[in-house]
């Protein structure tokens, strides 16, 4: 116990300096991260964790450099010289990481993509959740998260989608020849909108399109636009069930036409 007490008395100044520097670094990372986010928003630069992560690395590297000599007795110049000698080996071992960091900055500063974008890349469709210094996280419709290295994302073809085009759900049906198409459209929209009310995108109306003719009648489709958190098959099922109960659907040959009453 006496040995511990004596050691603490001998190194009290170093311990206090270490605690102060670490506390200042923690506070600085939070404050500067908040300021950085505000500056990025004002400059219309997409906000992602890559900027905050790089800032944290810089602050903590500076904090460690400050305490090396007085606390641990290590000369920063000697350490930097050693790092310089091993820099080539380190850079070779971190080629992928460096490529991902540079690609991440290119994606963000070039505004190629940003958090919240709906994209399709390499067969994966989803919303960009975050761009870190190594990878981009894409949230798929089913809740799965796809992690793609920034270097891959920067060299692959990428398609930006609108919510309407990605959530497009066609539900085909047939009406009897001679039916009043305006009346069929009105009634189809009425039943489908009620059935898919909680599944559809806001401000994107459901549509009815008449597409051609068959021996059984006039072909048509209801076009529903599903929200991103709803599977297209779920919206299609709800619309099909609503239409199946409607008397204007041509279920078999011989059904009579639907006219305005």
From TrEMBL:
One of its GO terms (molecular function) is mechanosensitive monoatomic ion channel activity. Its main location: membrane. Residues 53-95 form the Mechanosensitive ion channel transmembrane helices 2/3 domain. InterPro entries: LSM_dom_sf (IPR010920), MS_channel_1st (IPR049142), MscS_archaea/bacteria_type (IPR045275), MscS_beta-dom_sf (IPR023408), MscS_channel_2nd (IPR006685), MscS_channel_TM-2 (IPR011014). Pfam families: MS_channel_1st (PF21088), MS_channel_2nd (PF00924). It is found in: Cell membrane. GO terms for cellular component: plasma membrane. Residues 96-158 form the Mechanosensitive ion channel MscS domain. It is a multi-pass membrane protein. Keywords: Cell membrane, Membrane, Transmembrane, Transmembrane helix. The chain crosses the membrane at residues 15-33, 54-72, 78-102. Belongs to the MscS (TC 1.A.23) family. This is Mechanosensitive ion channel.
């Amino acid at each position: 116990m006496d040995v511990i007490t004596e050691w603490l008395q001998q190194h009290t100044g170093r311990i206090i300096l270490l605690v102060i520097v670490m506390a200042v670094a923690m506070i600085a990372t939070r404050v500067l991260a908040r300021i950085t986010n505000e500056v990025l928003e004002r400059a219309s630069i997409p906000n992602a964790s890559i900027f905050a992560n790089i800032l944290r690395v810089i602050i903590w590297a500076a904090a460690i450099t400050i305490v090396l000599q007085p606390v641990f007795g290590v000369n920063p110049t000697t350490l930097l010289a050693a790092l310089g000698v091993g820099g080539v080996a380190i850079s070779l071992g971190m080629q992928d990481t460096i490529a991902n960091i540079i690609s991440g900055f290119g994606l963000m500063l070039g505004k190629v993509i940003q958090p919240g974008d709906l994209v399709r890349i390499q067969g994966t469709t989803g919303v960009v959740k975050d761009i870190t210094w190594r990878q981009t996280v894409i949230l798929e419709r089913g809740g799965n998260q796809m992690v793609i290295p920034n270097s891959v994302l920067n060299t692959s073809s990428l398609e930006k989608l609108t919510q309407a085009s990605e959530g497009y759900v066609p539900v085909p049906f047939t009406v009897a020849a001679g039916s009043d198409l305006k009346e069929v459209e009105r009634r189809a929209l009425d039943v489908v909108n009620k059935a898919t009310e909680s599944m559809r995108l806001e401000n994107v109306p459901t549509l009815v399109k008449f597409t051609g003719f068959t021996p059984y009648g006039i072909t048509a489709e209801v076009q529903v636009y599903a929200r991103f958190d709803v599977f297209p098959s779920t919206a299609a099922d709800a619309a099909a069930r609503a239409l199946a109960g409607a008397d204007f659907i041509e279920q078999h040959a011989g059904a009579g036409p639907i006219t305005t009453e």
